[in-house]
Design goal:
- There is one protein chain.
- With about 325 residues, this protein is an alpha+beta fold.
- It has 12 helices and 10 strands.
- Strand 6 and strand 7 form a beta hairpin.
- It is globular.
C-alpha cells in the first residue's frame, strides 16, 4: 500500500537515474537508482507476483517466508509477458534494477516506524537453468520493509487486467485510484498533486496532455480496470469513478485452506493446461470449491488436475 501511494517506481520508458524525494507531512521517501536506473512500474510486477505467492500461503495456513521461489515461466505467463528469449532477458534486467534501487524512508510498514535504508529485494538467485541456458527456478528474498507490510496485511488486490496496461502512466494512475478511491464511488485529485504522486518529470502542460490522452482512450475503450478515469477541465482534476467490478471474496472454509500442493502437482497442472499460470487456475479452483455444493474432494490433487484439464478445454491457450 505504501508503494501504491508514493512514487517508488519510475514511470519513465528510459533509464531513470534521478534521485527523487517525495514528502507528505512528516513522512518522506527518497529513491536512489543504481547505474542501471531505478526500478520501473513494470519491474514492480515481480514484487506483486512474489507478494501474491506469500499471501496465498498465508490464506491457506502455510508458513510464510521472506524467500519466495517460483518458476520464471509462471511469472511471465501470469504478468502477460512474452515467453521468448527477450521476455527472459527483460526479467533479469528487472531483477537487477529492483536489487539496485535503494529506498530511504520513515514510512511505517507493519507498525515499525524508523528511518531505514534498504533495497526493494535483498537478493535474487537463479536456482536452476534449463539445457538452453534459460532460467527456470528463481528465488527472491524480499526486503524486511516489504515483508513487514505483507505480515500486517498492508496489501491490496489488483485486477488481473492491470498486467495488460502497457503505458507506465496508466498503471500508475490505476495504482493511485486503487489506493485512494478503493470501494468508494468517486475520488478526485488535482493535477499538480497527481504529478507528484506519479513521480513524473514532465512539465505541467505535458503531464496534462498525457493524462487527458489516457482519459480519452478510457472513454472510448473502457480499458482501465475497476475504475473509470475522466478529466475535469474546469477544476483541473482527475476524476476516478468506481465501476463496481471488484469482488469481495470471503475467507475460505478451513477444509479448503488445508489443501496444499507440492511441486509435482503444479508440474502436472502445467501439462494439463499448457501456457496457463497454474497458480491462477488454482485460485479459480478454490473459488469454485467455495461456491460449490459438492462435498470436499477425497483426492484434492487429482480433482485439481482434472479442473485444469477442463479449464483448458473450455478456454484454450492463453
Amino acid at each position: 500500500m505504501a508503494a501504491m501511494e508514493h512514487p517508488v517506481f519510475s514511470i519513465s520508458t528510459k533509464p531513470d537515474r534521478r534521485i527523487r524525494r517525495y514528502e507528505n507531512g512528516d513522512k518522506f521517501i527518497e529513491i536512489t537508482p543504481s547505474v542501471k536506473g531505478v526500478a520501473t512500474v513494470h519491474d514492480r510486477d515481480i514484487l506483486i507476483f512474489c507478494i501474491s505467492q506469500v499471501i496465498a500461503a498465508y490464506n491457506e495456513g502455510r508458513p510464510i517466508e521472506q524467500r519466495v521461489r517460483f518458476k520464471a515461466r509462471d511469472f511471465l505467463a501470469a504478468t502477460n509477458r512474452g515467453l521468448d528469449g527477450r521476455g527472459y532477458e527483460q526479467f533479469v534486467a528487472a531483477l537487477e534494477r529492483l536489487r539496485g534501487t535503494t529506498i530511504t524512508t520513515n514510512i511505517v510498514t507493519g507498525g515499525v516506524e524508523q528511518t531505514r535504508i534498504f533495497g526493494l529485494v535483498e537478493s535474487a538467485d537463479i536456482v536452476r537453468e534449463g539445457r538452453d541456458g534459460r532460467m527456470q527456478d528463481i528465488e527472491v528474498r524480499l526486503s524486511d520493509w516489504v515483508f513487514n507490510a505483507i505480515k500486517e496485511r498492508e496489501v491490496l488486490t489488483l485486477h488481473r487486467n492491470y498486467f495488460r496496461l502497457r503505458k507506465p502512466l496508466e498503471r500508475r494512475l490505476y495504482e493511485i485510484a486503487r489506493k485512494h478511491c478503493g470501494q468508494a464511488s468517486e475520488w478526485r485529485i488535482g493535477l499538480p498533486k497527481l504529478r507528484l504522486k506519479c513521480g513524473s518529470a514532465s512539465t505541467d502542460k505535458e503531464f496534462r496532455r498525457l493524462v487527458t490522452k489516457i482519459t480519452d482512450e478510457d472513454a472510448t475503450h473502457d480499458h482501465i480496470p475497476d475504475y473509470r478515469l475522466t478529466f475535469d477541465d474546469k477544476k483541473d482534476q482527475l476524476v476516478v469513478t468506481n465501476r463496481n467490478t471488484m469482488k469481495r471474496i470471503d475467507a475460505y472454509p478451513e477444509w479448503i485452506k488445508a489443501i496444499h500442493f507440492d511441486g509435482d502437482t503444479y508440474d502436472e497442472a502445467r501439462e494439463a493446461a499448457p501456457g496457463w499460470d497454474p497458480y491462477f487456475i488454482e485460485q479459480e479452483w478454490r473459488d469454485w470449491l467455495a461456491n460449490s455444493a459438492k462435498p470436499p474432494p477425497r483426492k484434492p490433487e487429482l480433482a485439481f488436475i482434472r479442473f485444469c484439464a477442463t479449464f483448458y478445454e473450455r478456454r484454450g491457450a492463453p
